[in-house]
């Protein structure tokens, strides 16, 4: 079920007044039931898989907390992470992984429906497990965990909210705030305009140039216009979804993290990825880039870690034609590495110039 659909609209029109009408102690349970109802309406198969998945993750959290040594907790985390990521990898990439392998046609032919938001709830579950092992998350009730994972506004297109700030707001149980509710409605309106008006406008412009045969006759200026319009389409489409998710969250009294900060105004590629899909970039920076060593183990290792992180970001966005996303990830990684080296040269040159100026000033003063 799409976030922008009549079915979703009717669902929220029923869920929002019911949520605020209930006593505070019942709201978490109600939202869990509503979340699973949303999954089952979207696909019964997805609902069953998600329910089993969440119970398994919660069981592993209990096991990690019960482990007596850090080594034992680390081993459990590795096993849990593989089990956690397994369904996402299989559902999203089975055509690309098994499509060309003899004897694996059965994996491709399975009548499976990709569960709603599988990439997002997988990354939230991994975050939950990692922070449990680090000691930042303690024993969590099933309702609190399910509430966090199945929070409907962020299921379809993020952002990848962190558990701690989400639970803090959940436990605070705020009263109905008309000002926040109004903010939510305004944010939803902005998102709808971005998604259904601006994104569709840019997409319509692009398709007129990319019809079969037409794209081979485009001039340089037309290609540049198409590229910029395609970027504008992607930004309006994706950030529009995020605006709607943020707005709907505020209708339920939650302030979730921002996911875009006008990346179109970024001055360089590094700043761009700090402004674009902020929750995903931040997640992979913390749990992949830093876990690989970040920049602590030398310049070569930092460049390799950057390349790996950007490859994962690129592959996360796709499911078919992974070679295209691989090339895109390679392009992004090389861009960040080149920019990093350029900054080093620039900073070294600035320091050298400053030293020369100080020496010259000292020489002039002593003359």
Report on this model:
The chain is an all-alpha fold and 367 residues long. It has 3 domains: 6-173, no CATH class; 174-260; 270-360, no CATH class. The chain is 74% helix and 0% strand. It contains 14 helices and no strands. Helix 1 (6-21) runs antiparallel to helix 2, helix 9 runs antiparallel to helix 10 (220-251) and helix 12 packs across helix 13.
List keywords for this structure.
367 residues, mainly alpha
**Beta-strand share of residues:** under 5%
Radius of gyration using CA atoms only: 24 Å
Average pLDDT, all residues: 85
Order of SSEs: HHHHHHHHHHHHHH
Number of helices: 14
Q: What shape does the CA trace take?
A: globular
Largest sheet: none
Task: Estimate the helix proportion, in percent.
Answer: over 70%
Beta-strand segment tally: 0
Tally of separate domains: 3
Which class do the helix and strand fractions yield? mainly alpha
**Poorly predicted sequence stretches spanning 5 or more consecutive residues:** none
Termini separation? 79 Å
SSE inventory with pairings:
Elements (H helix, E strand, L loop, with lengths): L5 H16 L2 H19 L1 H23 L3 H29 L6 H5 L8 H16 L8 H8 L13 H10 L5 H32 L10 H32 L17 H7 L2 H12 L9 H19 L4 H45 L1
Short synopsis of the structure:
The chain has helices spanning 6-21, 24-42, 44-66, 70-98, 105-109, 118-133, 142-149, 163-172, 178-209, 220-251, 269-275, 278-289, 299-317, 322-366. The chain has 367 residues and is an all-alpha fold.
């Amino acid at each position: 079920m799409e976030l922008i659909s009549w079915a979703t609209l009717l669902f929220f029109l029923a869920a929002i007044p019911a949520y605020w009408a209930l006593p505070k102690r019942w709201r978490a349970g109600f939202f869990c039931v509503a979340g699973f109802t949303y999954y089952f309406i979207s696909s019964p198969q997805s609902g069953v898989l998600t329910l089993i998945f969440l119970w398994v993750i919660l069981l592993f959290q209990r096991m990690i907390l019960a482990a007596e040594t850090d080594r034992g907790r680390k081993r459990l985390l590795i096993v849990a992470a593989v089990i956690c990521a397994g369904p996402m990898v299989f559902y999203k990439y089975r055509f690309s992984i098994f499509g060309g392998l003899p004897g694996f046609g059965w994996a491709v032919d399975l009548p499976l429906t990709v569960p709603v938001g599988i990439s997002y709830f997988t990354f939230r579950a991994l975050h939950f497990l990692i922070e449990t092992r680090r000691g930042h998350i303690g024993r969590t009730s099933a309702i609190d965990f399910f509430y966090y994972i199945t929070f409907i506004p962020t299921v379809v297109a993020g952002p990848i909210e962190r558990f701690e700030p989400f639970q803090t707001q959940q436990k605070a149980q705020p009263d109905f705030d008309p000002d926040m509710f109004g903010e939510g409605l305004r944010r939803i309106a902005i998102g709808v305009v971005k998604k259904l008006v601006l994104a569709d406008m840019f997409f319509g412009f692009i398709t007129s140039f990319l019809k079969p045969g037409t794209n081979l006759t485009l001039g340089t200026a037309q290609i540049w216009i198409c590229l910029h319009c395609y970027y504008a389409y992607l930004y309006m489409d994706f950030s529009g979804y995020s605006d709607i998710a943020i707005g709907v969250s505020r209708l339920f009294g939650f302030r979730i993290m921002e996911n875009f900060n006008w990346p179109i105004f970024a001055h360089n590629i590094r700043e761009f990825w700090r402004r674009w899909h902020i929750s995903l970039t931040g997640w992979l920076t913390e749990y992949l880039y830093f876990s690989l060593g970040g920049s602590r183990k030398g310049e070569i290792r930092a460049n390799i870690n950057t390349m790996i992180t950007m490859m994962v970001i690129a592959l996360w966005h796709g499911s078919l034609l992974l070679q295209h996303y691989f090339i895109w990830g390679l392009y992004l990684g090389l861009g960040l590495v080149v920019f990093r080296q350029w900054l080093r040269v620039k900073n070294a040159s600035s320091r050298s110039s400053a030293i020369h100026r100080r020496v010259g000033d000292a020489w002039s003063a002593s003359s």
